[in-house]
Amino acid sequence: VNGHSDRMFWCEFSPSENNNFHLATASADGKVKIWDTSSTESNPKCIRSFNSHSNEVEVLRVSWSHDGDFLASGGSDGVVRTWSLRESSKLPKLEIHCVDAEASKEGKGQVYGLVYSTDTLAAGYENTV
């Protein structure tokens, strides 16, 4: 997949919707992108892009909700954001600060793991869930 201006850290396929899978990517460029993988072209088409975190912040993980309605992103700033994919808004629905601003400036609290269960989102950072 070409389309980020910096390296990708993580990618994850969406839950299937009529065998129409999408791929979400997390990148050091501070963006989360969603790609349409149903095409037979060699490079999938980007269908949504979120400036998930600032350009100085690397997006380290993404995770889909089980119904595919939400996507969560976690960054090197210790912030988790969730996005509603059923709405056209590019603003996060929820923002969770895993660490305070001072710890974030020191590089602590980077979000290395995200996973949805049926109704819960868990984030892993600095020896903590």
Can you put this structure into words, describing what you see?
With 129 residues, this protein is mainly beta. The model has no long low-confidence stretch (mean pLDDT 78). The strands form 3 sheets. Strands 1-2-3-4 form a 4-stranded antiparallel β-sheet, with no helix packed on it. A 4-stranded antiparallel β-sheet has the order 5-6-7-8, with no helix packed on it. It is built from 1 helix and 10 strands, in the order ββββββββαββ.
Distance between the termini: 30 Å
Report the principal-axis shape: globular
Radius of gyration: 14 Å
Overall mean pLDDT score? Answer: 78
Could you give the order of the helices and strands? Answer: EEEEEEEEHEE
Largest sheet: 4 strands, antiparallel
Number of helices: 1
Overall structural class, as computed from helix and strand content, comes to mainly beta
Portion in strands: 35-45%
Q: What portion of residues is helical?
A: under 10%
What are the SSEs and their pairings?
Layout: E1 8-13, E2 22-27, E3 32-36, E4 45-50, E5 59-64, E6 70-75, E7 79-84, E8 94-97, H1 101-105, E9 111-116, E10 121-125
Antiparallel strand pairs: 1-2, 2-3, 3-4, 5-6, 6-7, 7-8, 9-10
Offer a concise description of the structure.
With 129 residues, the protein is mainly β. The protein has one helix at residues 101-105, and strands at residues 8-13, 22-27, 32-36, 45-50, 59-64, 70-75, 79-84, 94-97, 111-116, 121-125. The strands form three sheets. A four-stranded antiparallel sheet has the order 1-2-3-4, with no helix packed on it. It has a four-stranded antiparallel sheet with strand order 5-6-7-8, with no helix packed on it.
